[in-house]
Amino acid sequence: MSEFLKAFQDLQQPREKKHFVTIEGIQFEVSLEKKLEVLKNGEQNYILSKSGITLRKPAVRKVRYSVLKTADKGYSFERGDIHWPNAVKENGETWQIEYE
Fold it and tell me: Are 13 and 40 in the same domain?
């Protein structure tokens, strides 16, 4: 009967939970806080670095927008309203795309 009690007491003792994340196909044991952070941001957004598991920097996107500039040949606008082009003239204004 004593063996049964020993086994029952071993079951009663709390076990430490282990938390794992998979980064770049490799499974790592991490703390609960790190696991929750990785779940929040997504495993695909993390990389391995010298300092450990780090969040990948977001890609810098090139912004494209149109700017009204004077050109050799361009539009003249009715009362300066860009929505009402009147005619094409020398040294008029045109929409040109710029990248940032």
Answer: yes
- Judge if 14 and 39 occupy the same domain: yes
Q: pLDDT tens across 29-60, in order?
A: 999 999 999 999 999 999 999 988 999 998 88
Q: How many CA atoms lie within 13 A of 73 on its CB side?
A: 1
Instruction: Flag whether the pTM goes above 0.70.
Output: no
Report yes or no: 28 and 53 within 8 Å, Cβ to Cβ: yes
Residue 19 and residue 39 in contact, taking contact as beta carbons nearer than 8 Å: no
Q: Cα–Cα distances in Å, from 40 out to 33, 47, 55? A: 11, 15, 11
| Residue 96: count of CB within 10 angstroms of its CB | 12
Enumerate residues 6+ apart whose C-beta is below 8 A from 20: 27, 28, 29, 30, 35
Domain membership of residue 82 as a residue range: 64-99
**Strands (E) located in the chain:** 19-23, 26-30, 46-49, 52-55, 64-77, 85-90, 93-99
